[in-house]
Write a structure and sequence with these properties.
The chain is mainly alpha-helical. About 70% of the residues lie in helices and about 0% in strands. It contains 15 helices and no strands.
């Protein structure tokens, strides 16, 4: 069909806005990548925008040679994996239990859960509770408080309720108990929804710096995002390298004198951002379908 002048104008404006949006998202990432791959003293002169002018890997050598960064990266990976799997499992179990309309006090339980979205105790009561539970300054302070998500539970609940009741009833007639119904019937049909919610949960764990900054004082337990937050507020490169950096590797590097605090910061940003970006392509085929299914069922 032939488009009118107005339709062509609207389409042009939409495409132009989308291109500007993409540039606004991609350019900061490319800029940080260029700075991280450029000599620090050369980048400090300005003029580095998309491509490194004086290419070097020294920044990454210093970052990956830092024991604190390696340990914080390991903590972040463990937290993301354990927190995502545990969070999906606990939330799915709650949603599956509440999907039974004959469950005693079902409406009361749903109302109580809904109230937790509208009201919360605040930061100080949460800190006191975590202290009384002995979770402060432990790895589990990242996991246990985030095992259950009310929003994810409601999405899972609506998804399960949208399944044909005859499918579940036929499994129960064949002698399947509730755990078998959940893991053999519901979970295989819920892969797109679980993948979408799992991605949201993993990104939340990966990007969280708050818990490590306020609930953990042991440097060996801080995640990489908390280390990055501390790094961004540092004013001296010695506060970044410290005594945990491989000083022998620094001494062998002929370009170590060209390292600046900004170049180190950009290298840490890239090291902390790239791994979670690499996860998305593997979940993309489930992601769009899962979001659409959740929105329709909700």
């Amino acid at each position: 069909m032939k488009q009118s002048a107005a339709e062509k104008t609207v389409q042009f404006v939409i495409v132009a806005l989308l291109i500007l949006l993409c540039v606004s998202v991609i350019y900061p990432f490319l800029y940080m990548l260029a700075i991280s791959l450029n000599e620090g003293t050369d980048a400090a002169k300005g003029g580095v925008y998309l491509f490194p002018r004086a290419f070097t890997l020294t920044n990454y050598e210093l970052v990956l040679g830092n024991e604190v960064i390696r340990q914080s990266f390991l903590i972040t990976v463990l937290r993301t994996v354990v927190g995502t799997v545990g969070g999906l499992l606990v939330t799915l179990l709650v949603a599956f239990g509440l999907s039974y309309r004959r469950l005693p006090m079902r409406s009361t339980i749903l109302t109580y859960i809904l109230l937790t979205i509208l009201f919360s105790g605040g930061l100080v009561p949460l800190y006191i509770q975590l202290n009384n539970l002995g979770l402060l300054n432990t790895f589990w302070v990242y996991i246990l408080p985030n095992l259950f998500s009310v929003w994810n539970m409601f999405v899972m609940l609506k998804f399960i309720q949208g399944m044909p009741e005859a499918l579940i009833e036929s499994a129960e007639l064949d002698g399947a108990n509730p755990p078998r119904v959940l893991f053999n019937v519901i979970v295989p049909l819920s892969k797109p929804m679980l993948a979408a919610l799992g991605l949201f949960t993993a990104v939340g764990h990966w990007n969280d710096w708050f818990a490590g900054a306020f609930y953990v004082s042991d440097q060996s337990l801080i995640p990489v995002q908390t280390f990055l937050q501390q790094l961004l507020s540092a004013s001296d490169i010695s506060a970044v390298l410290g005594s945990n950096t491989n000083q022998e590797a620094i001494a062998r590097s002929s370009q170590s004198q060209n390292v600046t605090l900004m170049s180190i910061k950009m290298a840490v940003v890239m090291v902390s951002a790239i791994p979670i970006l690499c996860v998305y392509p593997f979940l993309q085929k489930y992601f769009v379908k899962g979001v659409l299914v959740g929105s329709v069922k909700g």
